[in-house]
Amino acid sequence: MGISATDSEFLERVLAAGTILVNIGDIDILLEQILTEARFFTNADAGSIYTVEGGVLSFCHSQNDTITRRGDRIPYTRFSIPLSKSSMAGYVASTGEILNIDDVRKIPDDAPYSFDDSYDKAAFYRTRSTLTLPLINNRKVVVGVLQLINARSDSREFIAFHSRMELLGKYYATLGALALERAMMTRTLLMRMVNMTELRDPGETGPHVNRVGSYSVAIYDSWAKANRVEEAERIHNKDVLRMAVMLHDVGKTGISDVILKKPAALSPDERKIMENHCIIGAEILRNCESPFDEMAKDIALCHHENWDGTGYPRGLKGNEIPFMARITSIADVFDALSSSRAYKNPWATNLVTDEMEKLFGSKFDPDLKTHFVSQLEVLQELKENYPENRKTEEGRKNDDEK
Q: Which of 81, 90, 176, 274 could be stapled to 34 by a disulfide with Cβ–Cβ 3.0 to 4.6 Å?
């Protein structure tokens, strides 16, 4: 039995979307894309995606077309809760079963799980149908949960998730679990390199590099959408950028502790040695064989170059500076100003904004100012996702991030 041209076209779109997923290496970009693709092919109005690790269920991303259409924004804030069967997502994470519920307000009283309507009340939204699926890896372990909300008919009415929708949801949950397993391994390897840097410079923490990576992606995404970058290219660049930025200061592993942890101001000669961390980082990432290697090297080498040519290590100016390094520079300074250091408290939000805006045209690419400003609320929310998990050791007063 053959398939129709319409079915063939649909299948091609499903396979193309799957190809995008398996080629994503960053966890955050991957989770967001799993949710996007699963919602598209099941025609779900909204959805959320979670990770499961160490008995903890972590809320990672949420999307909602109804809320977005009315001009409201979905918060980026994450949270984690102990694994429990009392919620639908927790039940699926604990049992590995699929829950396809036609109406969440008609869940039997004797069911082990229930629907929490606090989000609906806060967002002025009404959840009806849900399809909640486990992301199970090849070791039969649940590593995440995909929850799709409010299937829509062709007339955009909320309906139950029918069998074809459930089948497509299972496809993306299965594919997503395999991709997520690989992305977790990639993140672990990156964090090992970051941890090596932190041993030398306590200011270079995991939360710091995750914040700078997230900020960079938000600024790039705003620019890419404004410049009509095609979706596949935009997703690819966000993925590579998110990972590459995490290694922006890896070259500090080659700088002496005497300089990195000096409690007083550096001498001119010591400052020159400190500035070599950019060159050392590029050396560590040399022999580029992939887009990630190339971008990571460019960012490590050039994220302290200034638009007006006063930066280091090569005094590049304007468009001589690689584009992604220009974005990273903005994100890195924003994090330095808005975060605590051993020698200072975080600046107030309005002071950070004022100072950053002054630097466009001298330190930063002026064409990126609009995109930075438009994402300020998002950046503040992303900051809360990666708080410092311990006190940093006494650092150097000559932090070169500003």
A: 176
